[in-house]
């Protein structure tokens, strides 16, 4: 397939829309001329032209229950499995209350197949909100409860859903594409009393403080609570292009965010588009790029957050400066993703190694520019030997051990 000369890098919300559209879940076509649609790593995913959307390469997957292929099934696949069976879709966009759970049997009465649709955005949820991993766990529990009551088929289905969904994207339309005769958004059936109690959850602590303490004391306790924070951290991945560091970094950031650790992901390619736009790939530019990433990561850590960075960072001197800045701000963990060059080259999704071999990309790390293997890595992972989930678990364990020490 020949690709258009124009390339468009999609935002996280647009990637959700593209994935949903390619799997038959919605009609979506980005505005503009024919273009090759890519993710932030410049991997071509689809072509948009006058004939619609055509897939090019599969989407990169991360870890977590919302990325389980058994749950993240496309609309065409789910609709085929439903067939002519009477089906109802229930959207689990936030954790249901007891009364909503109790109402589920009535809402799904008459359906032989129940689809619990869980929206999953690539963007991190707002602070305090339950993200896609938690919603999948909630929906799995709901499914088990419904199956225990009768013999109906109940499936949990993860639906790519942008954090800022356009008005044209409506759940009844999406549910129909997944094979449901009707669609219910569970949270919209919430009783007024429950809605008021849920809305008031955030003020329960401050209300109790105000009741227990005089005004002056209450103000100081509130101030202390606002400024309380744990030690921040920088998790810094380094490795060749195609080693899997970005995939592991994204999955780790999502898992840490889901656990309430405010996490900022600084991926190498995305940083190149914004923080380091205009820099070349000579040694001086590469060092400056890494230094900028390290500086921003240390700022995140200094305010109690967790920064997860995933540049190639080929030179020991640049990594040493990042460590120095990060350790002054909090905890630092250097992770060397040591996947062998031949594996990285074989799995290259962007065709960069082939171009480098032909001399079309000068100073390409591992081919025409050196990669200085870390001698001070806190953790070494070869993604040709371990899964993404196992890699995330190893990094998470090492990080938590340091934060708790």
TrEMBL record:
It catalyses: adenosine 5'-phosphosulfate + ATP = 3'-phosphoadenylyl sulfate + ADP + H(+). Residues 232-382 form the APS kinase domain. Keywords: ATP-binding, Kinase, Nucleotide-binding, Phosphoprotein, Transferase. It comes from the Bacteria. ATP binds at residues 239-246. Pfam families: APS_kinase (PF01583). Its EC number is 2.7.1.25. InterPro entries: APS, APS_kinase_dom, P-loop_NTPase, Sulf_AdTrans/APS_kinase. Pathway: Sulfur metabolism; hydrogen sulfide biosynthesis; sulfite from sulfate: step 2/3. NCBIfam families: apsK, PRK03846.1. Belongs to the APS kinase family. HAMAP family: Adenylyl_sulf_kinase (MF_00065). Catalyzes the synthesis of activated sulfate. This is Adenylyl-sulfate kinase. It comes from Isoptericola hypogeus. The lineage of its organism: Bacteria, Bacillati, Actinomycetota, Actinomycetes, Micrococcales. The gene is cysC.
């Amino acid at each position: 397939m020949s690709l258009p000369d124009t390339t468009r890098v999609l935002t996280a919300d647009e990637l959700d829309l593209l994935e949903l559209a390619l799997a038959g879940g919605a009609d979506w076509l980005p505005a503009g001329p024919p273009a090759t649609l890519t993710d932030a790593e410049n991997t071509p995913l689809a072509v948009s032209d006058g004939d619609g959307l055509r897939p090019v390469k599969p989407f990169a997957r991360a870890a977590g229950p919302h990325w389980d292929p058994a749950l993240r099934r496309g609309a065409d696949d789910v609709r085929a499995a439903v067939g002519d069976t009477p089906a109802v879709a229930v959207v689990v966009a936030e954790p249901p209350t007891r009364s909503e759970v109790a109402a589920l049997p009535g809402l799904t009465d008459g359906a032989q197949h129940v689809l619990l649709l869980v929206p999953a955005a690539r963007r991190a949820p707002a602070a305090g909100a339950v993200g896609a991993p938690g919603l999948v766990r909630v929906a799995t529990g709901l499914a088990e409860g419904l199956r225990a009551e009768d013999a109906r088929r109940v499936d949990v289905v993860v639906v790519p859903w942008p954090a800022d969904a356009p008005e044209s994207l409506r759940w009844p339309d999406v549910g129909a594409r997944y094979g449901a005769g009707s669609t219910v958004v569970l949270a919209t059936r919430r009783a007024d009393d429950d809605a008021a109690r849920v809305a008031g959850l955030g003020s329960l602590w401050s209300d109790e403080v105000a009741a227990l303490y005089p005004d002056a004391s209450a103000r100081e306790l509130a101030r202390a609570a606002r400024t309380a924070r744990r030690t921040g951290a920088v998790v810094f991945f380094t490795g060749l292009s195609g080693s899997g560091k970005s995939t592991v970094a994204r999955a780790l950031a999502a898992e840490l965010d889901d656990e309430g650790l405010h996490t900022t992901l600084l991926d190498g390619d995305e940083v190149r588009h914004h923080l380091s736009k205009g820099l070349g790939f000579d040694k001086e530019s590469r060092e400056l790029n890494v230094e900028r990433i390290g500086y921003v990561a240390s700022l995140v850590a200094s305010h109690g957050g967790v920064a997860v960075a995933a540049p190639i960072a080929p030179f020991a001197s640049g990594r040493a400066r990042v460590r120095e800045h990060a350790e002054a701000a909090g905890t630092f963990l250097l992770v060397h993703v040591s996947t062998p060059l031949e594996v990285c080259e074989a799995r290259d999704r962007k065709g960069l190694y082939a171009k480098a071999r032909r001399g079309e990309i000068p100073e390409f790390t591992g081919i025409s520019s050196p990669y200085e293997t870390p001698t001070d890595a806190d953790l070494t992972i070869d993604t040709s030997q371990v899964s993404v989930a196992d890699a995330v678990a190893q990094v998470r364990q090492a990080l938590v051990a340091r934060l708790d020490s």
